[in-house]
């Protein structure tokens, strides 16, 4: 059973629209009903901060990581990356997921923002510029990043 279902273009749940490409809309359905089948299913891995309420902006990072490298990525996220990023002013919280259908990218991180430019702040850039980040970045394949806004 999925903890998150992302339906592109249509569906139930919160609607988040890509700021750079308004035609790209994700329907973000947490704890989807069993009957909801269309979309990309994800399993919850971890969260930090306030992730219980919709945020005005959602910054998503999709990563494709080789199976053998997942333990190193999980350690980095849990011990350093997620705590540092969710501590940046304007970041409300962050959640991590693993894709369930075998597709790529296989990991998703979603950060809830108060305003769209949080990931461009000096504090955010500093938080993602550590020696540990430098060591794990070569493990990333097919990274995709989007800032999305909540739409009615």
TrEMBL record:
It comes from Paracraurococcus ruber. This is DUF1330 domain-containing protein.
